[in-house]
Amino acid sequence: MGLVETLRERGFLYQITDEEGLSRLEAEGPIIGYIGFDPTADSLHVGSLVPIMALMHMQREGHIPIALLGGGTAMVGDPSGKTEMRKMLLKEQIEANGEKIRRQLGKYLDFEGGKAIFFNNADWLLPLHYVDFLREIGRHFSVNRMLTAESIKQRLETGLSFLEFNYMLLQAYDFYRLYVDRDCRLQMGGQDQWGNIVAGIDLIRRMTGGTAFGMTFPLLTNASGEKFGKTVAGAVWLDAEKTSPYDFYQFWRNTDDRDVKRFLGLFTFLPMEEVERLGGLKDKDLNRAKEILAFEATRITHGEAAAKEAYQAAIRQFGSADPEGRIETSSIIRSVAMDREASIPVCYYAPDEGEGSEVPVVDLFVLGGLAKSKSEARRLIKQGGGYLNDERIEGIDATIVLESLKGEGVTLRAGKKRVVRIKLGEE
Asked: What angle do CA 300, 107, 67 make, to 5 degrees?
């Protein structure tokens, strides 16, 4: 399954400029794609998790995501989705916010060895000479066409500053710079970014004759039509100091019944068969699905230990939908248990082979839920991200003898954080 199919299946895809062309590009090798994050606050919030999860899926599929910090565009302010001009921030505040967001994104993406890339558009936007920029870039933009963009049209009724009107040019220039400097061919963002993304694709074509692609995600509201991530207490932040892991867990645990399946697809890495099963539960059984959603979402943002602590605190206060109060989350294919001492999910392997048989490592990566397919497991190993007992796996044809799965078994690791232990199933 390719990137587009994965994102569509999980509910991320809203619009795409040229799906066939992007599929051909993916067949040629890893895609380099980016999403921008303007540092208008000192933390991202759960509304940012849709683009973050999309970048994580991109990396899991063997592509190279770019997280672009909008240190330059934040000084202008994106008018998209706003009824009035954003509050102007001092340069020093933007820089301080940006540093915190850079560290925050490092919890989700593996930036080691070029597996993901971080840029700050302040590096190329702030040194621009205004007249030169207008002559080189501005001449490719039609004001008439800009006025048809949804983000501009909405603001014309309430007032749009000339400063904000320039935002589209700056974002388009970002895409152009990443295309020229890093061969970045894909920009992704919320559906309100469609006009800005298309403007960047058009600028690349006019300036270089090259082809680039765009993809947008649906803007999320909950089943009641309210903006996703807003609560009575305000925004739900990804920073543990602004929203505690327990409150973060409770936000997901309180998901409306109608949103459970959709949120499981978007905000966890559970296999879609498991998403379908959990999303199809009814009445009181659906509360178990909410616990799993809350645990998985909290684990991705705050880590395994914090997710366990939040889950156990919730059990002490409210009880659990699981009669035994287990932490296991069904996030691994086949039979799974949680090793409470090592905090590592355990997957029990039931082999058909006899004594002395060897098992392909790529099969175990799929079995343990660290890869969705053998081809994905091979890509992971080729890129140096596959480990067996903390030793890097050097070849995609690596095997292990069946006897090594006896007793404590073996540990497989994908990247820095995703670990599973594989054991022979008990007879």
From this structure: 110
| φ, ψ at 305 (rounded to 5°) | -60, -45
Domains of the chain, first to last: 3-217 (3.40.50.620), 230-331 (1.10.240.10), 344-424 (3.10.290.10)
**pLDDT tens figures, 371-417:** 878 888 888 898 888 999 888 898 888 888 888 888 778 888 888 76
Q: Is the pLDDT of residue 352 over 60?
A: no
CB atoms within 10 A of CB 250: 20
Helix intervals (H) in 10-48: 19-28
> Are 308 and 344 in contact, with CB atoms under 8 Å apart?
no
- ∠ CA 130-36-13 to the nearest 5 degrees? 130
Q: Is pLDDT above 80 for 132?
A: no
Alpha-carbon distance of 36 to 70, in angstroms, equals: 6
- Half-sphere exposure in the Cβ direction for 34 (13 Å, CA): 29
Neighbours of 274 (CB within 10 A): 19
118 in Cβ contact with 65 (< 8 Å): no
* Phi-psi category of residue 339: left, alpha or beta, with phi > 0 → left and psi -120 to 50 → alpha: beta
Q: pLDDT tens digits, residue range 137-180?
A: 877 877 778 777 776 776 676 666 666 777 888 999 999 999 99
Distance of CA 388 to CAs 140, 370, 372, 377, Å?
Answer: 52, 12, 18, 13
Closest to 138 measured CA to CA, from 161, 179, 178, 166: 166
Q: Are strands 410-414 and 386-388 parallel, antiparallel or unpaired?
A: antiparallel
Given a cut of 60, whether residue 212 has pLDDT beyond it is yes
Q: Which residues pair with 386 in a beta bridge?
A: 414
